[in-house]
Amino acid sequence: MNDFVYIGEQLKNIQNQIPASVQLIAVSKTHGVDKIAQAYQSGHRHFGENKVQELLEKKDQLPGDIHWHLIGHLQRNKVKYIIPFVHLIHGVDSLRLLEEINKEAEKQGKIISVLLQVYIAKEESKFGMEEGEIIAFFKTQQWQRYPHVHIKGLMGMATNTENHLLIRQEFSGLKKLFDQCQEWHPLSVLSMGMSADYSIAIECGSSMIRVGSSIFGQRNYHTS
Ligand SMILES: *Cc1c(COP(=O)(O)O)cnc(C)c1O
1, 42, 79, 220: which has the fewest Cβ within 10 Å? Predict the structure, then answer.
């Protein structure tokens, strides 16, 4: 089987497993534009990258109707480069970053869709805002201070573990927070679930999954 069949088949397999209401983001980080083009040719339009430089390089070589999602930790000094075209920023993990996105969006005459990233894992390595901060943000209507940002929902990453019970607890906790925040501000997107845990995430109420290795194969960080 060649790569073309493989990537298209994998996308179809996953689409067939998940409810139509759940949106699949194909996480193409570290993979070449040839593979993204194959996924594109099979009809896929939503792709996720986690590094601004890599995203900019790839974007220029690919069709203009791709919806690009910035999924990882975003540095404030890189925000301005993605404002012109980014579809959704998933990893807003501080108010300083939100402030910067709002400032650049205003400068460039845009309204940018974002998700606030919530820290839900039992791991030191993951980014995100604390649950209490998120509640305070919505309760005190702080979104009003960022008129060039559209806060569409929340994003979270579960602990990287074989312990499905723990993953389920973390995702369920995020869903509960998501529902709670809706009392103050309408939210439509709950981004949770990756290759290893998207089935659990969907059972817990995810509306958007970010899947990389199950579509494109394993990433090799040691070659470019
Ligand atoms: C890499 C990455 C993914 C996809 O991970 P896979 O395990 O390859 O599916 C999803 N979300 C974020 C934030 C990522 O950095």
Answer: 1
